[in-house]
Amino acid sequence: MDKSNQSYMQRALELASKAAEIGEVPVGAVVVKKHTGEIIGEGYNRRETNKSPLAHAEIIAINEASKNLGGWRLIDCDMYVTLEPCAMCAGAIINSRIEKVYFGTFDPRFGAVGSTVNLFDGRFNHCPEIESGVLSEESSDIIKEFFKNLRNEKKSKISAIN
């Protein structure tokens, strides 16, 4: 695996950890300008915090990258995200013209670039490339640990009531 891909995904994992710390599903994303290697957008899930279904890591990272570039077209940009994008995020990736998406782990329930559907399959005007499995174990572990802790918290609350 390319060391730069690993370092960008490592940054996405750091952002996912920030999400977990505030009680959000731990997903992190970065947008990288390919020819400079600069991270121009970062995001982590903030749906509960922002009380918005739109506050996904990818959307936040795309918005920041667009502001930094001064336009909505993220040409010559790649995205690194810890979890396979959902349909909303895949649509935003297509519309923003991101060239390639690297993701860590598949999302069998909501993933829209291979798991439930593949919105990058060539039916749209712009079709990003995909590379899955970048730091997949780490990406999977952070999500599994988050939901395990959530289940344990629920059990503790139920036990305290009884």
Any overview of this molecule?
A hairpin with a 4-residue loop joins strand 1 and strand 2. The model has no long low-confidence stretch (mean pLDDT 94). A five-stranded mixed sheet has the order 2-1-3-4-5. It is built from five helices and five strands, in the order H-E-E-H-H-E-H-E-E-H. The N and C termini lie far apart (51 Å). It is an alpha/beta fold and 162 residues long.
Describe the structure using short key phrases:
162 residues; alpha/beta; 5-stranded mixed beta sheet; 5 helices; globular
Helix content, binned percent: 40-55%
| Parts with pLDDT < 50 across at least 5 consecutive residues | none
Number of strands: 5
Global Rg: 16 Å
Strand order of the largest sheet: 2-1-3-4-5
* N-to-C span: 51 Å
**Beta fraction:** 15-25%
Inertia-based shape: globular
Alpha plus pi helix count:
5
Seen as an oligomer or otherwise, the chain set is single chain
Mean pLDDT: 94
The run of helices and strands is HEEHHEHEEH
Annotate the secondary structure layout.
Blueprint: H1 3-21, E1 28-33, E2 38-44, H2 47-50, H3 57-69, E3 77-83, H4 87-96, E4 100-105, E5 129-132, H5 136-161
Parallel strand pairs: 3-4, 4-5
Antiparallel strand pairs: 1-2, 1-3
Helix pairs in contact: 1-5
Briefly, what is this?
With 162 residues, the chain is α/β, with parallel strands linked by helices. Helix content is 44%, strand content 19%. The N and C termini lie far apart (51 Å).
